[in-house]
Amino acid sequence: MAIFKRFLSNCTLILSHVLGGILCCHLNELKVIIMEGLEKLDRIDIRILYELQKNGRISNVELSERVHLSPSPCLTRVKRLQSAGYISGYAALINVAKLGGTLTVFTEVTLRNHRQTDFGRFLDGLQQVEEVMECHMMSGGYDFLLKFATNGIVDYQDTIDRLIERELGIDKYFSYVVLRSPIIRHHLPLERLFSI
Question: Whose C-alpha in 18, 53, 78, 159 is 20 to 30 A from the C-alpha of 145?
Fold first, then answer.
């Protein structure tokens, strides 16, 4: 439990779409060490999750070789991890650069008020905006960090204007346009995070 708490205190994770594609294997909030009512995951389970998030199309035979199990027990573990919600889906990674011009913008948002209903109204409104790829609730000088994927600066500004017009409680926002993304990883370092 201490490892999980340390991990949560060091990371803010909301897994969703990323500009370079879609995470191969979404892990359900990484409730990996201990959850009430669920058994403890062992290092083989963590290794299976690690391999699947790197390659969601890996064959069961190859996966079983990588985690040092025979195919049948490996498949049983994968199915158990899926039914327990540790694996919430599989998707293709899209090379967005091949598709043409896109713009990624990170936006700091501060809300006018900080009641639970204000946060709820804001988040409900964001759910309807496809251009919002990630939303992180932050500590510090602003409330949320958003990641937008748009087809250009005009499209981004139109999206922000629509959000403001919907009166979601935005007090102020600051935009940071991404010029280049030299490092984009689509998988978490599970083996390092959980020392296996």
Answer: 53
Cβ neighbors of 172 (< 8 A, separation 6 or more) are 109, 110
Number of H helices, E strands in the chain: 8, 8
Same domain, 10 and 78: yes
Q: Which domain holds residue 56?
A: 2-94
Which of 79, 94, 109 is the endpoint of a domain? 94
Check if the beta carbon of residue 178 is closer than 8 Å to that of residue 106: yes
Instruction: Let me know: does 89 contact 103? Beta carbons within 8 Å.
Output: no
Question: Are residue 86 and residue 6 in the same domain, yes or no?
Answer: yes
Do 119 and 101 fall within a single domain? yes
pLDDT per residue as tens digits for the range 66-83: 999 999 999 999 999 999
Do residues 46 and 77 both lie within one domain? yes
Q: Indicate the SS3 state at residue 87.
A: strand
Q: Which two tokens stand for residue 63?
A: 């996966």
Structure-token match 């960090």, residue found: 145
- Hey, what amino acid is at 86? Y
Q: 112 lies in a domain?
A: yes
User: Comparing C-alpha atoms, which of 196, 17, 154 is closest to residue 92?
Assistant: 17
Backbone angles phi, psi at 151, to 5 degrees: -95, 10
**pLDDT value at 27 more than 80:** no
Domain assignment of residue 115, yes or no: yes
Higher pLDDT, 97 or 69: 69
